[in-house]
Amino acid sequence: MDQVFVFMVGTAGAGKSYLTKAFSEWLDFKKIDNITVNLDPGAEKLPYNPDIDVREWITLADIMEKYDVGPNGAQIIGADLISTIAKDLKDEIEYEGAPYVIIDTPGQMELFTMRRSGEVIIRVLGRERSVMVYLFDPVVSKTPSGFLSCLFMCSSAVFRLNVPQIPVLAKADVLEEHELEKVLEWSNDPDALYDDLLKESEKVLSGELFYMLRELGLFRPLIPVSAVTGYGMDDIYDGIQELFYGGDDLEKLIY
């Protein structure tokens, strides 16, 4: 069976690593074989034990010592070096043979989406078998301008990586019920967002950005998820099934 590569992408602090853990555990519960991959050479602590870890090849400490740079410079160099081990990563992933490969991307989103290494990894593993789960930060998303900013960054990731995307509202459990309802309303009804943008501010720039994103068809319903409760994992799974198997259940294809 072809492997499916699920890239967890989002801004720093959005909860990529915890969602990687939660989705992997949900698949385990459903008896669906999967592996986790850490692509962040600067990760100090992870909530899961990655089956494949880029830190076996590259670490920030080694980069800082070799190139005589600080932590920020090392992050950039590390992001670029990942592309040099893309085939090694592919060999390890193929050896594991799991149908689901959950890939936890670097904490700083731009290190994966804006550097060439992200495109190289996706191309080497297989663009036609890749999907991006993009995490909207709940704290930023709960204001109209914040939501619009998150949508813009989400859209930039689509343009850069050019793979199907499943947008999720991460850590949905931290929001009050009325905040959650409002964010989901904005993702389903662009006009509601525009009205609330006008109430928040009459800045022309926000309106122009709104119209651009709407005209490009980049508004999509968000899936609320929680890595703590496991809420929404089945919706992520269903979204992936729809993309790659036309809705056929992966469990039926495996067993």
CATH class: Alpha Beta
List SSEs in N-to-C order: EHEEHHHEHHEHHEHHHEHH
Overall mean confidence score, pLDDT:
90
The count of domains is 1
CATH-level-4 superfamily name = P-loop containing nucleotide triphosphate hydrolases
Strand count, sense and barrel status of the largest sheet are: 7 strands, parallel
Widest β-sheet, arrangement of strands: 3-2-4-1-5-6-7
How many extended strands? 7
CATH topology: Rossmann fold
Strand content: 5-15%
Number of discrete helical segments: 13
Structure in words:
It is a single chain. The chain is an alpha/beta fold and 255 residues long. The chain has a single domain (4-242), classed as Rossmann fold (3-Layer(aba) Sandwich), CATH 3.40.50. The chain has 13 helices and seven strands. The chain has helices spanning 16-29, 60-67, 71-81, 86-96, 110-113, 116-125, 138-141, 144-161, 177-188, 190-200, 204-215, 233-245, 250-254; strands at 4-10, 34-38, 52-53, 100-104, 130-136, 165-169, 223-224. A seven-stranded parallel beta sheet has the order 3-2-4-1-5-6-7, sandwiched between helices. The longest helix has 18 residues, at 144-161. The chain starts with a strand and ends with a helix.
Question: Helix and strand layout, with pairings?
Answer:
Elements: E1 4-10, H1 16-29, E2 34-38, E3 52-53, H2 60-67, H3 71-81, H4 86-96, E4 100-104, H5 110-113, H6 116-125, E5 130-136, H7 138-141, H8 144-161, E6 165-169, H9 177-188, H10 190-200, H11 204-215, E7 223-224, H12 233-245, H13 250-254
Parallel strand pairs: 1-4, 1-5, 2-3, 2-4, 5-6, 6-7
